[in-house]
Amino acid sequence: MCKAVFLDRDGVINVEKDYLYKIEDFEFMDGLFDSLRYLQELGYKLFIITNQSGIARNYYKIEDFNHLTSWMLSEFEKNGIKISQVELCPHGPNDNCTCRKPKTEMIENILKNFSLDLEKSWLIGDKSSDIKCAKNANIKNTIQVKSGHHFDEKKSEADFICESIKDIKDIIKE
């Protein structure tokens, strides 16, 4: 069984911008590539799980998301990073789906394709719904980054809090 890091997209991988779907608006977080290469060197498989309610709200289409994701994955590849799978929830907050974080269907879909040790895995997110998703899916370790949505650190259920993904080397050591 492999260990994994599940990554939220907006606010963790890229600078948070409302309903981001255009390549020209996409900005990778500072230090992201170094951090993800570090995780790979430690033997982690990398996955992205992302709520994309802009699709349900008709701000953009799933084809726009797929186009941006293909570009993003090629940028990762150019930088020596392999994302094993990307899962999205295209629904809105009131759609009562089974995939929108903090629900766990996106993680369950990944587990259908990979044998992962959730006790040795991590989830990195910027919202409480990300952290709750990890807890609901029995992912043992969580990091909440401040680089996306601002939150009350005292109310965070995350195991660790840091400024951004570039700080994870101080937390994830093996």
Please provide a written account of the structure.
With 174 residues, this protein is α/β, with parallel strands linked by helices. It has one domain: HAD superfamily/HAD-like (Rossmann fold, 3-Layer(aba) Sandwich), CATH 3.40.50. It contains five helices and six strands. The chain has a six-stranded parallel beta sheet with strand order 3-2-1-4-5-6, sandwiched between helices. The chain is globular and about 40 Å long. It starts with a strand and ends in a 12-residue tail after the last strand.
Short description:
This protein has 174 residues and is an alpha/beta fold. Helices cover 28% and strands 18% of the residues.
List keywords for this structure.
single chain, 174 residues, alpha/beta, 5 helices, 6 strands, globular
Chain-wise SSE layout:
Blueprint: E1 3-7, H1 32-41, E2 44-51, H2 53-56, H3 62-78, E3 83-89, H4 105-113, E4 122-125, H5 128-136, E5 141-145, E6 160-162
Parallel strand pairs: 1-2, 1-4, 2-3, 4-5, 5-6
As a whole number of angstroms, the C-alpha radius of gyration is 15 Å
Q: What general form does the structure show? A: globular
Overall number of structural domains: 1
Mean residue pLDDT = 96
Distance N terminus to C terminus? 15 Å
Describe the main β-sheet briefly: 6 strands, parallel
